[in-house]
From TrEMBL:
Keyword Signal included in the entry's annotation: yes
Annotated spans, Disordered: 172-214
Record's compositionally biased regions (Low complexity): 180-194
Organism per entry: Polyangium fumosum
Keywords per UniProt: Signal
UniProt protein name: Uncharacterized protein
Signal sequence, renumbered to the chain: 1-25
Highest taxon above the source species: Bacteria
Amino acid sequence: MSHPRALCILGTCVLVALASGVARANVAPPGLVPVKHSIHVDVEGALPPGKVLLMTGTFKGAAVIDTGTLVPFILGRYEFVRLYLIDAGDLPKVEAIRENWVPGTSAYEARSAITDRGLPCSDFLKIQRRDTPTSPVKEVRLFYTIKADGKSCASKHVRTDRLSELGAVIDSEPGSTQWPAVDAQPSAPAADAAAPPPPSSSPPAASAVAPNRGSLPEGTSACGTCAAGAHADDRYAAWLVLLGALVWTGRRALARGGF
């Protein structure tokens, strides 16, 4: 067999092997799976007239929370969840935000305008996002109590229940017996430090990550930031470029020399 032809065959085989390696490197390893979420908020006394409770950081940007009832919700991907007391007159704007929600767009700014006019009732809530595929936990249910007088608002974490698929309580984490002070500019929960930053300079309204062991922030993989994998992909790419050039050279030699 001629040298150029052998070079082409060898280079093509190595290219295929390296391309397969890159594909395998980009496949996320098996890890944690999402769980469902719900929240039950009671009010100490009553909400001030003309005020409603809003949760930010959900899948559609925000959700109105009817107090005294169980409210299912879906977490936003890169945000932290927070409770606000807002004017009832802003409800049509909230609905418009939900219908057009895209993080980092005018909908985000419109939501910030609503929450800036309102009162923060909580810091960022710590919420378990995922669990192992074999875990019996399928839903995380939060219980909070709030009190507000129109000039201030505070919330108290009563407990967090972890439920089975049939709704049975598997375990329960007690909350606080005290009314914590609400920070107007809270820091992101430490457990979510690896999560991507919110899309604007406004304070993010978003979710925290799991208190249970092995939980990862939404949007990250089981390998953390996967920096090592990124370097491996760079090496693969360099070899692919080099071998591609060799194969191209060999084929040109074949075409010219008639091997």
